[in-house]
Design goal:
Oligomer: single chain
Number of strands: 4
Largest sheet: 4 strands, antiparallel
Order of helices and strands: HHHHHHEEEEH
Helix content: 55-70%
Radius of gyration: 19 Å
Strand content: 5-15%
Shape: flat
Distance between the termini: 34 Å
Structural class: alpha+beta
Number of domains: 2
């Protein structure tokens, strides 16, 4: 990447991952107001944050794909630069606590964290996940969120806070 000429593979992978993750693409979709153009079954509640996030991200991906299929690489590249790349700093500000926890554990020679799902409840369209982190024999507080990724991120954040408070 021209923006990171000295960036190693790990840094570039993190930057790429940040701009293709669902939560960031959903923000772009929201900025464009794409949900206003979505025709959706009455049984789907687009007002639910989880549903809106998923649909906004899907719509951004579909828009990029449609432009590529219709116009080819150059128009698609221009669109990605305008929609995605111009907002990249917003994506890069988001913290990947799970990645930070793994890096932290490796940096001080701890075992890699293991994420355990203790419970999944709720109807299919509105699941709730309970997840905790275990590092070696140590178990950290459970996180409860509306999707698995968010629960893992919160659990990792909790573990980092505790580790940094004790090991700092």
């Amino acid at each position: 990447m021209a923006e990171f000429p000295a960036g190693d593979e790990g840094l570039l992978t993190k930057k790429r991952a940040a701009i293709v993750q669902r939560s960031f693409l959903a923000i772009v979709g929201e900025l464009l107001g794409l949900l206003n153009y979505l025709r959706i079954d009455q049984g789907i509640d687009i007002k639910q944050n989880k549903v809106a996030t998923r649909q906004n991200a899907n719509l951004v991906e579909a828009l990029i794909g449609a432009v590529y299929l219709d116009g080819g690489l150059e128009p698609c590249s221009n669109l990605v630069r305008r929609l995605i790349w111009s907002h990249r700093d917003e994506a890069w500000k988001a913290t990947n606590y799970k990645g930070k926890l793994i890096e932290y554990c490796h940096s001080i020679s701890l075992e890699s964290p293991v994420f355990h799902t203790t419970n999944i409840s709720g109807p299919d369209h509105d699941k709730v996940y309970e997840i905790y982190v275990q590092i070696g024999n140590r178990i950290f507080p459970t996180a409860i969120e509306s999707n698995k990724k968010a629960a893992e991120q919160t659990a990792a954040s909790n573990a980092l806070s505790i580790l940094n408070g004790i090991d700092s």
